[in-house]
Specification:
55 strands, mainly beta, six-stranded antiparallel β-sheet, about 1000 residues, eight-stranded antiparallel β-sheet, disordered N terminus
Length: about 1000
């Protein structure tokens, strides 16, 4: 399997690192052995077995009142492997609001060996959309309705053993307006805006067999049980020490009281037993539930970190008279966190949030969310490789598959429960609390989760407190902050933030939960490359200009830089109050709320098939560090295949101080730095050859070189295979991804190629295809074009193993065709049960290494506090302009003669910068003058921004007071950031200030250099 960091050329994509596989080879073998052992040996000893229950299901779209009966003839139904959404063919073909809904039945026949007759049998569903009625052997077992979370049932009393068939039948309903049967209430998150409706059993299913005395499952819904809780305390990060705790809920369903020993085994990534420790003996009366606990200090720990997915296996054993009667293995990691003084700390090191707000469905064309585990790793690892450190799943709890994937790749998660927009009351709020409870219990052992998010908009203090109490009840030691968006004035919330503008704090951390919404097709390079999409051209959105949603890739990448820099300049180390960063919405194109030319959202840094745009590489450069950039990089935006006579602006994204551009060895000089990371060379005359961007530090030492070369004429088609590390598995779920590229004679991708390619598939596999601009988005079509020289298609395995061949030919041109062959490997499914787990062969990502022990940032400016204030009017409100609460402000009353405010500084200082958050910051410009006594420090017009307008001085000015006054009429115009659709609280505050004679200051900060 390859994870290309840079997909600009085929050669570059083939240089992907395989280091992580070497680091986890022993671990993979151990886990594979362990999964087989637990699934079979334990079953033979009448202890515990966990089976993969995904295979050999039947599905029928429609309703049949007899479908729950064991004797029902389902031979005509389609055979599928789970996860399976019955409407998967519509993913990215149909608008979200047009995805099919209705009733679908799923059935599975299986046998349970006679020797397991005295065991408990539980079924675990990781999720069903939206409601599921479950029957076993014709008996109604129960109902689950929230459409998000995992749930389980005890089906012991309905099971037949030996050669007798068992039939499980599940009736699903994914209606958009589904109502809870007991209350007739709708569910807030069952929303046509953001929650793509992939119906049916769309997540994994497991079957658990245990003894009558057993450790419970972490499935509160329906079972009411909490399972295991593994956590660490007493951290000594530098010394690699901590106390490891294990707690397990035990249930005794035997007829006798039992005395149990509780033992814990800690096993590292290489399969080495690190520590064995025991808790006190525990007596569990017949019919009772008790909790066993054990703890021990452990040395030489490897702490989980960003880009360092170090995981341990924790075995919790129940023994009776020295004999093991139950064992559960939990894969987890340990890390220290801290949330305070406006900072987020991981393992004692400050980390600034830079990542993505991703739709929880995380879907693929024609697959929806029906993907193997390795494809979850593929996407989530790409986020880390772009130097993203946080994924904020949006509105609903992520699948367990994605949660565990983020553990492996070292990607921090913000986990919501379930919401839409805004607070709710009554039964719909109770739904949200219940889902948060279930999600915390189910995911509290996953170290990548650092945030529990209570809402996509602000919630009441009472509701926030209620969610915190749920966290404290079920995860009091997990080191996770509970918060919500728009909680800036909250006395309860432990983190907060906004969307599309900047906040700062010296109290709880605040970070932007969506800071950029720009969109654009990967197909559109610039104004000079076919198909010649001029930046911004496209339909209106709700009657408003939608140019931000119809960008070409050159401008999209530049806007990524411009938008991020406003947050970066407020990073830790830049004053008393700081921003903890933000996440860009989204990472991969999504079949949800769209605004641009297509019927799906185009705001990803990768497209729907996870092919990168230039913005991906821009992030790699800007985000290469925990706070400050720690390793220099550069990227030249665009391609270099044009025609003689063309002149084009060339932009370079670099973290260095200076950038020189050379064309075929000839220097084109240096460009001025803009927006912290952007260097633009104007009207460069094209000539074939090589562009080279050389980055220098402030001491003129070369720190990085990036190149961009002209490729030759298109000559051939080239195919590149991506599979799981062990290859393609013939399980009816696994997927092979194949890149199709148009290349020159040297194998370099031709970036302007748009050739239509025709595919022919042979062997035991199912064509799922790719996506491109055109009729039906080419979903499931065996003919589709490359875009910018490349596309990608998906091929799904069948349950039959064998050789698979793919041929690709150009429809219209004389390109040399390409052929690719690979083989799918069988798995053993016996009587509907298997111990096969793809996760056992998946590596962890360790490339970023353990948390560095060095500081994450240098102090770049020092805040000079304000001691007192005078104002032309409303002087009693003047302190609102520097109180640190960005929900308050000062403005004058009356005309311009009163539009002034004067600040006394606490000391005389060499002031280098003044930061102003002005009313209507995204839409307003103010003509102002700043003076200190008789000295004019600034005279001019401010410009719209995402939060703060900066007045910077070339040389520090020694002052102890300053005065700001309005010297003309303020200008109110359309948002410079195309955010007219926003109606949240921040926009409501901005709209207040439309008086041209009024100066409004929400916040002022004064700085000096260190």
């Amino acid at each position: 399997m390859e994870y290309p960091v840079n997909s600009k050329t085929t050669k570059e994509s083939k240089q992907s690192s395989n280091k992580c596989f070497q680091l986890t080879k022993i671990s993979t073998l151990f886990l594979l052995f362990f999964s087989l052992y637990t699934s079979h040996s334990f079953a033979n000893n009448n202890i515990r077995a966990t089976y993969n229950f995904n295979y050999e299901w039947k599905v029928f779209v429609g309703d049949d009142e007899n479908a729950s009966a064991p004797s029902f003839n389902d031979s005509s139904w389609k055979t599928v492997s789970l996860p399976h959404s019955w409407n998967e063919d519509e993913a990215f073909k149909n608008d979200i609001k047009d995805l099919s809904t209705g009733i679908a039945w799923y059935r599975k026949t299986f046998k349970v060996p006679e020797k397991q007759q005295n065991q408990k049998v539980f079924i675990e569903f990781e999720g069903v959309r939206h409601a599921a009625e479950v029957y076993v052997n014709g008996n109604y077992v129960g109902l689950h309705e929230n459409g998000i979370m995992a749930f389980g049932f005890d089906i012991s009393e309905y099971i037949k053993y030996g050669n007798a068939d068992n039939v499980i039948a599940v009736r699903t309903d994914n209606a958009w307006d589904y109502r809870e049967k007991a209350t007739n209430s709708t569910y807030q998150w069952n929303d046509r805006n953001f929650n793509a409706n992939y119906g049916g059993i769309n997540k994994n299913v497991k079957l658990h067999l245990t003894g009558k005395v057993y450790q419970t499952l972490p499935l509160y819904s329906n079972l009411g049980t909490t399972g295991q809780y593994i956590y660490a305390t007493d951290f000594d990060v530098a010394g690699q020490k901590a106390s490891i705790h294990a707690e397990t809920e035990i249930k005794n369903e035997s007829s006798n009281d039992v005395q149990l020993e509780y033992e814990v085994q800690l096993i590292d990534l290489d399969g080495k037993l690190v520590k064995t420790f025991k808790g006190k003996k525990i007596r569990v009366p017949a019919g009772a539930t008790r909790t066993a606990k054990a703890a021990a200090k452990v040395n030489d720990l490897n702490f989980w970190s960003w880009g360092y997915g170090y995981l341990y296996t924790v075995n919790t054993l129940l023994k009776k008279d020295g004999e093991i009667i139950d064992q559960v293995s939990t894969r987890t990691g340990f890390r220290k966190t801290d949330f305070g003084k406006g900072l987020i700390k991981l393992n004692d090191r400050t980390i600034m949030v830079h990542g993505y707000a991703q739709r929880t469905t995380n879907e693929w064309p024609a697959l929806g969310i029906n993907i193997p585990h390795w494809m979850s790793d593929y996407t989530n690892r790409q986020m880390v490789e772009s130097n993203g450190n946080v994924v904020r799943w949006m509105h609903i709890t992520p699948s367990k598959q994605d949660v565990e994937s983020c553990d492996r790749v070292g990607l921090i998660q913000a986990m919501p429960a379930g919401d839409s927009e805004g607070d709710v009351t009554g039964r719909r709020w109770e739904h949200r609390v219940e889902v948060m409870r279930d999600a915390i219990i189910y995911n509290r052992n996953n170290p990548s989760i650092l945030f529990y998010e209570g809402g996509n908009e602000g919630i009441s203090e009472e509701h926030m407190q209620e969610l915190i109490e749920v966290r404290d009840q079920y995860d009091p030691y997990g080191g996770r902050a509970a918060g919500s968006r728009e909680m800036l004035d909250s006395k309860v919330s432990e983190f907060g933030g906004e969307m599309l503008y900047i906040n700062k704090s010296d109290n709880m951390p605040v970070w932007a939960m969506e800071y950029m919404r720009d969109e654009g097709l990967r197909k559109y390079w610039d104004n000079y490359t076919q198909p010649f999409h001029k930046h911004g051209v496209g339909p209106l959105y709700k009657g408003q200009d939608a140019s931000a949603y119809n960008q070409n890739m050159d401008e999209y990448a530049r806007n990524v830089v411009k938008r991020w820099y406003e947050y970066y300049r407020e990073r830790p180390g830049t004053g008393n109050r700081v921003s903890s960063g933000g996440v860009n919405i989204i990472f991969s194109e999504t079949n949800t709320h769209h605004r641009g030319t297509q019927n799906y959202r185009l705001s990803g840094e990768v497209d729907a098939m996870r092919l990168p745009k230039d913005a991906f590489y821009a992030h790699q450069v800007m985000w290469n560090g925990w706070v400050d950039v720690e390793k220099h990089g550069a990227h030249i935006i665009g391609h270099w295949n044009y025609h003689p006579g063309l002149k084009k602006d060339v932009s370079v994204v670099s973290s260095a101080d200076k950038v020189e551009l050379k064309l075929n060895g000839r220097s084109l000089g240096f460009a001025e730095k803009e927006h912290g990371f952007l260097f633009t060379f104007n009207k460069v005359k094209w000539e074939a050859g090589e562009l080279k961007a050389i980055s220098y530090d402030r001491n003129n030492q070369q720190v990085h070189t990036a190149t961009l070369a002209t490729t030759g004429k298109p000559e051939s088609i080239q195919l590149t295979l991506h599979t799981a590390p062990g290859g393609l598995t013939a399980d009816g779920l696994d997927v092979a991804l194949v890149d199709v590229e148009v290349v020159d004679k040297d194998g370099n991708r031709c970036p302007t190629a748009l050739d239509m390619i025709e595919f022919e598939l042979d062997g035991p596999a199912e064509w799922r295809g790719g996506i491109a601009q055109g009729p039906g988005n080419f979903i499931l079509s065996k003919t589709l074009p490359v875009e910018a020289g490349i596309n990608r298609v998906a091929i799904r395995s069948l349950s039959k193993a064998g050789k698979i061949s793919l041929t690709a030919r150009s429809v219209a041109s004389q390109l040399n065709p390409a052929e690719l062959s690979f083989t799918s490997s069988p798995i053993k499914v016996e009587n509907g049960l298997t111990g096969y787990k793809q996760t056992a062969s998946l590596p962890v990502y360790l490339e970023k290494g353990p948390t560095p022990q060095t500081p994450a940032y240098k102090v770049s400016r020092i805040q000079v506090n304000i001691s007192s204030v005078k104002a032309g009017s409303r002087e009693n409100e003047a302190q609102n302009s520097f109180d640190g609460r960005q929900t308050t402000s000062w403005s004058n009353q009356g005309g311009k003669e009163n539009a002034w405010i004067e600040y006394q500084l606490e000391r005389k200082a060499p002031v280098s910068e003044i930061a102003l958050k002005l009313g209507g910051w995204r839409t307003s410009s103010y003509p102002i003058e700043i003076t200190a006594g008789d000295k004019v420090l600034f005279n001019g017009m401010t410009s719209p921004n995402l939060g703060f307008y900066y007045v910077e001085f070339k040389e520090p000015v020694e002052i102890d007071q300053l005065k700001i006054r309005l010297i003309g009429e303020a200008d109110f115009h359309k948002s410079q950031f195309n955010m007219a659709e926003m109606t949240n609280n921040s926009m409501a505050r901005e709209r207040k200030f439309k008086d041209a004679g009024r100066l409004n200051i929400a916040e002022i900060e004064v700085f000096q250099k260190p």
